Every structure is written in C-alpha cells, then in structure tokens.
C-alpha cells in the first residue's frame, strides 16, 4: 500500500522514544494498546516532534498508562480529567505540544463534560481516545460505549443502554479533526495521528482497540485472532458506508447493523483558544 | 518596555483603595507572581475570579474559566507544571468538587493556591452568608493520609498579605496552600494599602539544574524535590500513583508508599517555623483566653478590651495558620490560662484540635454560631463573664 509513510522498525521506535525502565507493559495478551503506542510514536517520528517540548497527558485506565512508557514529560492525571489538566498546560504554555491518551470510560464517561468543553474552546490538543467498549482496568464493566446488548460484569444480562458515538459528538461540537480507526492496520491510524498533531486545534482520533481479556471473553471474542478478525469484519469505511446507505440493497443496508463506521469524519479549521487568548493579550496588555 | 513588576503595579491601580476581601485576594496573588487562574463562578468567591479575569490579560498572564471546579483544579495542576504560579478560588460546593485533584496536587508536589470564600453548608446552604464550616474539610477533605497548609486572614489588608504568603509557602514547599476566608470578609470593603515590592518577600520553587543527575521526586535535605517544568528537557513523568524517586509507579510496594507519604507529610510538619502564624493580645497576663480565627477574631479583640475594663483578665490568641495546627502555641497558652473560649462560625470544628492541644490543662468552651451572622461583642462578653465563675 502506498501510504507515503517511512517504515519504522520496532527497534528504532524503542530506542528513540521509550522509557525502558517501565517495561514490560501492564497490557494483556491480545490487547491493542501496544499498537496504539507504536502508531503514535510512528506518527510523532513522521511529524518530527521534539519530545523535549511535548507533554503526554492521560487520565486513569489501561490506555492512560501509555504516557509512562514514553521518554518525555508525562502527566498521568485523575480519572476523567486528562483534558482539564491538558487545557491548563496549553493555556499556560502554548509552546508545548500536548498529546492526550484517554479511554472510552475515562474520556467519554466520567470525563464527558471535559471532552465537550475542551472541543468547544478548541484547545490545541491531540486526543487519542482508545475505545475498547469497556472498563478494562477494573475488570470489564459496562461503559458508555458498550454495544447494545453487550455483556459485561455489570450488564450480566446484556447492555440495555444506547452506546455513545464519540466521533459524532466531537463532529457536532465542531472539532477541527475527527477520525476513527481500528488498530488492526497501521497506515491509517498513523496518518491520522500525524494529521491530528499537525492540526491547529482539537483533534480526536478514536482507536477501536480489542480487549479480549475484559470484554472479548464475555462476548464470544475471547481468542485473540478471533477478536482481531472481528474488528476487520465489523468496520466499514465512511465512503462505503455512505454509498450503501444511499444506493445499497436492503440486504446490504441491513448488513451495516452492528458495524462501525471508520474514516476521517471531519477535517476543517477553527480558531483555537490559545490563538484567541494571545490576540486578546496583544490587544489588552498594558 | 516596562518590567513585569511595573505592569503589575499599573494593572492594580492606586496604592490606596477601598475594596472587598475578594479583590484583595486577587491583588495579593498578582503581587505574588501569579500568572494563571482557572476557576468557576460561585458566590461569594466570584469576585476573585472577576478581578483575575480583568488583571491577568493586562499583565500577559492567562485566565481560563473552566466547566466546573473539578476541571479548574485539574487545569491548575497542568499550568503549575509549566512553571507558572497558579491560583483558583471557590466556595463550599466547589471546594467539595476540588478534593480529588487537590489530593493529586499534594501527591505530585504541585505548587498551587486554593482560595475558599466560605459560605454556610451543607449542600447549597446559604450562598451569600459567611461561615467557617469547611475548616475540617480543608484538613481531611481529600482522601488518604496527608498534611495541608491553611491560612485564615481576618481583614481585607491581611487577605492580600496572606495570599502572598500562601504563594510563597506553596512554591517553597511544593504543595497546595489553602487561603480560607468567608462571605463576610470576601464581600466587606475596607481600606487597602498595596505594599511596595520591598515590603514583602517573593519565593520561587526550587529548580532542578542538572539533567544528568535529575531524579524528579528525590528530595533535597529539606525534603522538597527540585522542580523541572514541562518543556525544559528534563522529561518528568508525573503520576498520582505511589511513585519512587524517579517518579515511576510502584503502586504495590509498601516500602515506597510508606517512604513517599511520610516524606510528603514531614515536608510540611518539619517547616512549622515557616508556616505558623498567630497574633497574641495580653498573652502574659491572661486568665480567660479567647482563641479565634478569621472574621470572628475581629470582634474578639474589642471584646477583650471591654472585658479588661470590667476587671476580667482576658486575652486573645488569634490563629492565622490553622493547618498544620499550631499545637505548641495553644499548649503554651493552656499552661497559663484557666479557660479558653472558642467562638466559631460553625458547630465546633477547630475546638477539637484545641482540646487535643490543651489536653485537659484548662477549660475549653466552644461558642458555636451558624446561620451567617457574626458573634456579637455583647454575647461574647457574657460568655467570658460566665467562664470567670466556672470551676477549673
């Protein structure tokens, strides 16, 4: 596939970017978080970020452990509040690049209000939101993203709540960059994370990430190969999705049910909080 | 080009003003070098935020209004890690929401100043009325073992001065410092004289200088680790998990946890000489003492004078720093007096550490008043007179 990306070996990324004393990771076999880390480092390399001037911020949960593995400034904050901490960093020092790792529970459950307002202000942060449909670190409870009918330790009879589409929310709030990809292949996530970092303004990259241990085993997706295959088979590219919705047969349209739309949903420009604040200071400073 | 200090002077305006306690708090913060404020509107603390919103852009700082007090406290910690001096202000309901991230600031040794302009609780209570009902929440509100520094000024002038002290202590000891006033003091207007720069001290947090030997949470001899702001190339990992001196999580180690949490506490309690502040009236010749703090203490000074005119050997111990509790000072008074009257605008909170410090050496009589009204001089005088006849 002609992606235009430089191919990075794991060894190269490891040597240049990782905090070795933190390894091995806490992640389970078959977890996609290692891939998310790999793609992020690859994207950082692609963009040529100076890690001395980059801060990785996170909340609490499996995905929020990622900043600890990167040899840079990191702020492993409180549950759900990563975007509030990140906003403080950006507002106080807009010269620093801020990349946030969060999960579906952390970022869209307990932290949902911060997500809403950080997008509204358009803080220039890149948010990599790892969605595994569950609270993995606490052993697999239902999350705001747990699919309709999904089983978890707190929905033992199936989830009766409607799941949240985080990308639709971000899009509606006017986030300048919104994308969703499964971790099962690297090229698109790497490109999107790089675009998100380059984007002046709020960028959300939702990574659909398998959790065989806490979610998969309760939903017939316990085997690693099986759950990774599920992500290939249950994700549909935006263009294809829209084509089927418009021109597809009833059978084809029916086949979309229970599947997830992937792609770049929004790529636009909007003034950031930081730029507007700088303009205000330029005007009002004595 | 004017210097930053000159900008501050120009932003604050005339040297002598007639302003509220909330205004004085904002002025003190700016004089102390505060360049970042995150907050959320709440009565009776809103004016602190309003003043900061006016002043900070004029001196090149940043004001950000967050979506709630949880976010305010989070943004404060993030901003402090860039090296900025930071403050937020709130009242009871908001202070409740801040507790978790306040604990995070303690655990991660993040300098910050949190102002609570107290109102009557619990819950929404009496938003416009003064109270001192959060004194124990200040001490134990966030979960886990910890020490906290809390200061309680009693006049508009002192609010300014104590806010500067709060910043200095936060920076010096790398810890959150609480400034607690109340709706009365926050909204009361008094003459304020803005001090010149040579009239107060300005303290900066200890800075790490050598990248090669840098261990983010390895303390110096005073138990305070040198600080390296984000973006300085020192590559610090900050976590609220129990961490070793490298800052890396060691959440299952009893030894690391014990060492860390004891050091965080000792870092405060070893510096009582820097923290403890109080005022004494008639300390050498006192039989019946009033021990008071905050706005209540103002009434007490007049009451003591009047009692003396009536032949009662009264005195006043006004506590300015409440946490860590100045046990040694109260204990010294307990040696000399027969009784202590403890008027508080709550149902009896600081009377507990007072009793602990007194340890039965004299009578301790609480005088609780809630509902938003201050103790009157007449009723305090009556209480002093009654104490005179109480058997030891």
Report the major sheet of chain A: 8 strands, mixed
**Residue runs with pLDDT of under 50 for 5 or more positions of chain B:** none
The order of strands across the largest sheet of chain A is 2-1-3-4-8-7-10-9
Using the coordinates shown, work out and report the CATH topology of chain A. Answer: Rossmann fold
CATH class of the largest domain in chain B: Alpha Beta
Global geometry of chain B: globular
Could you characterize the architecture of this molecule?
The complex is a heterodimer of chains A (286) and B (392). Chain A has 286 residues and is of the alpha/beta class. Chain A has helices at 10-17, 33-47, 66-69, 82-92, 104-110, 112-121, 166-172, 187-198, 224-233, 238-247, 250-254, 273-284, and strands spanning 54-58, 73-76, 97-103, 126-131, 134-135, 141-142, 177-182, 203-208, 235-237, 260-267. Chain A has one domain: Rossmann fold (3-Layer(aba) Sandwich). In chain A, strand 5 (134-135) and strand 6 form a beta hairpin. The mean pLDDT of chain A is 96. Chain B has two domains: 4-199, 3-Layer(aba) Sandwich (Rossmann fold), CATH 3.40.50; 281-388, Rossmann fold (3-Layer(aba) Sandwich), CATH 3.40.50. The radius of gyration of chain B is 21 Å and the shape is globular. In chain B, the strands form three sheets. In chain B, strands 2, 3, 4, 5, 6, 7, 8 and 14 form an eight-stranded mixed β-sheet that branches. Chain B has a five-stranded mixed β-sheet with strand order 11-13-12-15-16, with helices on both faces. In chain B, strands 1-9 form a two-stranded antiparallel sheet. Chains A and B meet through strand 2, helix 4, helix 6 and helix 12 of A and helix 1, strand 2, helix 4, helix 5 and strand 10 of B.
């Amino acid at each position: 596939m002609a992606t235009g990306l430089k191919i990075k070996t794991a060894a190269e990324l490891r040597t240049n970017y990782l905090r070795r004393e933190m390894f091995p990771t806490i992640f389970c076999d078959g977890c996609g978080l290692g891939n998310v880390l790999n793609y992020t480092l690859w994207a950082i390399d692609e963009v040529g970020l100076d890690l001395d001037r980059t801060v990785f911020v996170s909340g609490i949960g499996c995905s929020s452990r990622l900043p600890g593995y990167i040899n840079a400034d990191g702020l492993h904050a409180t549950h759900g509040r990563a975007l509030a901490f990140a906003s403080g960093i950006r507002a106080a020092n807009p010269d620093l690049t801020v990349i946030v790792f969060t999960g579906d529970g952390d970022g869209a459950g307990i932290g949902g209000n911060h997500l809403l307002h950080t997008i509204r202000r358009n803080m220039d942060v890149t948010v990599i939101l790892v969605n595994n449909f569950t609270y993995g670190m606490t052993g697999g409870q239902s999350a705001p993203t747990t699919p309709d009918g999904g089983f978890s330790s707190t929905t033992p009879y199936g989830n009766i709540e409607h799941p949240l589409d985080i990308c639709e929310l971000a899009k509606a709030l006017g986030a300048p960059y919104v994308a969703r990809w499964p971790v099962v292949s690297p090229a698109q996530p790497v490109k999107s994370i790089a675009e998100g970092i380059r984007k002046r303004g709020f960028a959300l990259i939702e990574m659909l990430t398998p959790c065989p241990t806490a979610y998969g085993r309760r939903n017939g997706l316990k085997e690693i190969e099986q759950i990774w295959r599920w992500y290939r088979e249950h994700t549909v590219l935006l263009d294809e999705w829209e084509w089927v919705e418009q021109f597809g047969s009833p059978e084809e349209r029916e086949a979309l049910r229970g599947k997830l739309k992937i792609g770049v949903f929004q790529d636009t420009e909007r003034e950031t909080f930081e730029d507007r604040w700088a303009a205000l200071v330029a005007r009002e400073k004595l | 080009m004017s210097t930053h200090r000159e900008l501050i002077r120009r932003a604050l305006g005339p040297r002598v003003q007639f302003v509220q306690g909330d205004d004085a708090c904002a002025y003190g913060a700016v004089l102390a070098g505060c360049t970042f404020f995150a907050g959320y509107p709440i009565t009776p603390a809103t004016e602190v935020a309003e003043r900061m919103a006016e002043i900070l852009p004029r001196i090149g700082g940043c004001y950000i209004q967050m979506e709630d007090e949880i976010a305010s406290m989070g943004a404060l910690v993030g901003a402090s890690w860039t090296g900025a001096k930071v403050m937020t202000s709130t009242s009871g309901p908001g202070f409740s929401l801040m507790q978790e991230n306040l604990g995070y600031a303690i655990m991660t040794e993040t300098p910050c100043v949190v102002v609570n302009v107290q109102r009557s609780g619990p819950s929404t209570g009496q938003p416009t009325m003064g109270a001192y009902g959060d004194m124990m929440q200040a001490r134990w509100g966030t979960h886990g073992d910890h020490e906290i520094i809390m200061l309680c000024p009693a006049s508009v002038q002192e609010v300014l001065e104590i806010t500067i002290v709060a910043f200095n202590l936060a920076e010096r000891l790398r810890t959150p410092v609480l400034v607690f006033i109340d709706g009365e003091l926050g909204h009361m207007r008094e003459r304020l004289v803005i001090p010149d720069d040579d009239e107060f001290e300005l303290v900066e947090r200890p800075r790490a200088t050598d990248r090669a030997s840098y261990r983010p949470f390895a303390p110096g001899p005073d138990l305070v680790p040198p600080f390296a702001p984000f973006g300085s190339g020192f590559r610090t990992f900050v976590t609220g998990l129990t961490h070793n001196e490298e800052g890396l999580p060691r959440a299952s180690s009893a030894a690391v946890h014990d060492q860390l949490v004891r050091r965080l506490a000792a870092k405060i309690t070893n510096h009582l000489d820097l923290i403890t502040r109080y005022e004494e009236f008639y300390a050498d010749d006192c039989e019946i003492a009033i021990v008071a703090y905050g706005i209540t203490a103002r009434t007490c000074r007049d009451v003591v004078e009047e009692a003396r005119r009536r032949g009662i050997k009264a005195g006043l111990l006004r506590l300015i720093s409440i946490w860590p509790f100045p046990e040694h000072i109260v204990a010294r008074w307990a040696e000399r007096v027969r009784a202590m009257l403890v008027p508080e605008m709550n149902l009896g909170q600081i009377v507990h550490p007072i009793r602990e410090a007194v340890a039965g050496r004299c009578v301790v009589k609480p005088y609780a008043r809630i509902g938003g009204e201050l103790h009157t001089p007449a009723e305090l005088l009556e209480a002093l007179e009654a104490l005179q006849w109480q058997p030891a």
